[in-house]
Amino acid sequence: MARNTNYEVAHDLQKLAVIAVFFNPVRYSSRYNLYRRFEEHMSQSGVFLFTVECVFESAPLFGLQQQTYEVTQSNNPHHLQLVAPSILWMKENLINISVKHLPAHIEYIAWIDTDIEFDHLNWPHLVIEELQRYPIVQLFEMANFLGPKGKNEILRRDYSFVYSIKHNKPIDSRQYKEWYPHPGYAWAMRRTEFNSIGGLFEFAVLGSGDLHLAYALLNRIRETFPKNLHEDYQRLAIAWSERVAELAQEGHNVGYVPINIWHHWHGSKNDRGYVERWSILERHQFSPSKDLERNTETGVIGLVSRRNIGKLQMSVRMIALERDIVIYFQSRKEDSESNVVKPIKSIEPKPGPVNPKPTAAGSGSHFRINKQTLPKFSSHSNRPTYVVIPSSGYSHINDPESCWVDCTCCERHDHHHDDDCPCCTHYGGGHGWEDHHEKPECFDEFEHEQGCHDHNEEDEFYDAYSGDCDQGNTPGGNVTDDYGDGDHQGDTNDDGDGPGSFY
Hints:
Elements: E1 16-23, H1 29-45, E2 48-56, E3 79-84, H2 91-101, E4 108-112, E5 116-118, H3 123-131, E6 136-138, E7 142-147, E8 150-160, H4 161-166, E9 181-182, E10 186-190, H5 191-196, H6 209-217, H7 231-248, E11 254-256, E12 260-263, H8 278-283, H9 288-291, E13 292-295, E14 301-303, H10 306-309, H11 312-331, E15 387-388, E16 403-404, H12 458-465, E17 473-474
Parallel strand pairs: 1-2, 1-4, 2-3, 6-11, 7-12, 8-9
Antiparallel strand pairs: 4-10, 5-12, 6-10, 7-8, 13-14, 13-17, 15-16
């Protein structure tokens, strides 16, 4: 297909800023290497690159390395270094924060995944030209998903979501095998319009922010999350999407850049768990307004700290939620070079109906019944150690003494998940509850029946988690202030079963 990659006039690139987000809880070397490649590519493109890097203070609690900044320097004005109290998918939150730190003269902002590369260096001029026509722009026409061998191994090609809108291609999960409109990789907006919608939806703590944005353009965000997700998440997402849809005129006021991109390999697509990760938020009934708090000084969000929770039961659930998020990040295996997908020679778009009637709200069309099971620990001894580390600044790890956080799930009852209890972790070596605990029972309303657990006195267990409340954190619902009432990266399983496989 012939593409016009020329631009009418040379634009002032000083008005454009590219935001790169870097967070790496598992310390994948591929993320570091891809960022360095991307940094050089942006330099060659002549654009202003603003990099925000976030480290996670809770990493040692889950057996991960102590976090240090890998790609940014504190004395570089083009870098922003932040600390998050909990391990979450931080992309959209960090982008929103970064926009507030950009110089006042910046009129256009782009956020681009650091694993992609444009096939022409004139792309910044094309971006500005398109942003002068439309307030929201996706920055490519077609994406080449590469294998471990690089540009000599193209595993699949996908057209962009906005290209699909503009060319009346099907945007329907039932037809993704024939036509997949990619929702991610690279977007840009006019700064004023970005602010008018309240920034990006930042409560997708396991990813899918790009998917939410793309479908919000068409006022179809209800198709992007499962029906069993907490109603609070759904309500906030819908309220935000209504502003996006109004700005985008339900797809009529958006554009794309007529240029192709390369997506560089960082692990098999089969390890991304784009569908399965939703089960974590469903299982824990994640509620953004109840389960998140925002640091009022930095804007960084995190799970509600122990002292602000006020309930042992809630504290246990927060630890279990973060534990499952850590397991998800580990399961992505982004340093793996193993690939089971055969490279393709070419791909021709197949005809399909013009954007079909949207699926009914809550249909769960993106979420198949036959889901893969998220990786779980199968024995006591191979679980990560949860140890509270003395530190300052965040209430859930600033206790004066390190203390073990142990599950007391009774091994004698018929509990259906003795080896995957949500109460944290078991002692190694096969120790049972009777070795450590005696007294009152707790009640976990999400996973257990009353009487399954025996814990020490609540105040002792609670003290193990809590500390002085971080004055910079605002508990609970205040995270939703910007919303009023209110991976991402694409690929597919071999069988192409369902859109969630791509996100």
